[in-house]
Amino acid sequence: MIIPRLFLFISFFSLVLCNEKFNSHVLPRPLILETTQLRELDNEVQLQCTSWRFGVEANNLNPWKTIPLECADYVKDYMLGRAYRLDLERVSNEAGIYAKSLELSGDGKDIWVFDVDDTLLSHLPYYADHGYGLEIFDPAEFNRWVDKALAPAIEPSLKLYKEVMGLGFKVFLLTGRSESQRSMTEENLINAGFQNWEKLILRGSEDHAKLATVFKSDKRSEMVKEGYRILGNSGDQWSDLLGSFMSNRSFKLPNPMYFIV
Ligand SMILES: *[C@@H]1O[C@H](CO)[C@@H](O)[C@H](O)[C@H]1NC(C)=O
């Protein structure tokens, strides 16, 4: 956004300068007005879309299907610019501070749960080809991308992953991906730098009809019944974090591109 703004700013002043140098009747005033109006509209879109994104991240907009058309450039700028990275780093850092503050029991039952898609592995390369959430989600097309096992790591999550492991947490990966995608999921995770998880839990045949919140709650309930203590949970969707048998602390990663019920 900085470059187009700067450009508008410069063109605004060059118009003013032209106006002063030459006959002020040659360049009609409305030209200048148009430029300022453009800048205001730009600001208004920025404001509206920031407000929309706040609603998304706070789970006030629930459910939503695609990003608003007028926010297409805004979401793209957010995802590709520094803001998304900064937000990811903040979540990872805060989670790390919390993890370090805990005294683990040492019995191997203290666990941290991570979601996989857009929590550990980034689907930004896929969404870059699909309007950053502007297109209605196409599961078949998305699965073809998943099967390639090429998703890069979300670096701040990899940092947290290594940190909690170093502290002695057992790591559980809980994903809405299907059991049939287990081998490519493992391959992708390992290639992206994730190793030594305790369990990778995918959707079995009995889980396919379940909403993500229900599936994940059911799986967390099994963990608790097995005596595990879920002390931390990281996910980019509220459905990773809410429901029953919630973690002592949940960490919501930013994701303005899509919403999973
Ligand atoms: C986690 O939450 C449970 C249930 O509320 C509580 O008993 C336990 O003390 C909490 N553990 C930590 C480490 O905060």
UniProtKB/TrEMBL annotation:
Residues 1-18 form the signal peptide. Transmembrane segments: none annotated. The keyword Signal applies. Gene3D superfamilies: HAD superfamily/HAD-like. The keyword Metal-binding does not apply. Keywords: Glycoprotein, Signal, Storage protein. It comes from the Eukaryota. It holds the Pfam family Acid_phosphat_B. One of its GO terms (molecular function) is acid phosphatase activity. PANTHER family: ACID PHOSPHATASE-LIKE PROTEIN (PTHR31284). Belongs to the APS1/VSP family. May function as somatic storage protein during early seedling development. This is ACID PHOSPHATASE 1. It comes from Salix koriyanagi. The lineage of its organism: Eukaryota, Viridiplantae, Streptophyta, Embryophyta, Tracheophyta.
